[in-house]
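pls ignore typos typing on phone
zinc ion + seq
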Amino acid sequence: MLSADFARLGEEVRAVDKAGADWIHIDVMDGHFVPNITIGPDVVKALRPHTEKPFDVHLMIAPCDPYIEAFAKAGADQITVHAEAGPHLDRSLQLIRSFGKHAGVSLTPSTPESALEYVIDKVDHVLVMTVNPGFGGQTFIPAQLDKIRAIKKMIGSRPIHIEVDGGIHVETAPLVVEAGANALVSGSGVFSDDRYAENIKAIRDAAMRGRVAA
Ligand code: ZN
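k done
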């Protein structure tokens, strides 16, 4: 939702739901962990009645633990924290699951996949950032493809999603899927014009080409 019209957020959530989005990805920024400020739990709560699709809440805040309960109660279905945001990642993941929510770890472009090593059995999804967190509309960082491959290997047969966030559009979607990603976040790729359904379909079709190639 980072690239949506913030003055009409409820309407925008309904529009991407109708346009075929599987999850609603909500970027929460605090002006401290990342150099931008977006929205808090009250806005998530206000958006909740606008769709039945899962809310995929990406916390780019530090410390994250004091706010996990508020986002869980606001209606998040999946909560993702950054490996560095805790201060204690294992505790943050347990806290998210204690509210019955899916727990995820996000890795910034400079964070190695080894950050997952000792928490892998406590995560439901890994969110690989393919741009530096903070702003929409940035350019995809190709070096992250190797990291996606390494995470795919580390996960093995575990039922863990690999989600990719940053610079995802029709050109980059097949690359990340071929590397092992199975959940794609797109902001400006969807909201660039008012044809949300066409944009989502184009990214999904491009992603399927990556699956065939893999
Ligand atoms: Zn995000």
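The radius of gyration is 16 Å. The helical segments are 9-18, 41-47, 65-74, 89-98, 144-155, 173-179, 188-191, 196-213. more later
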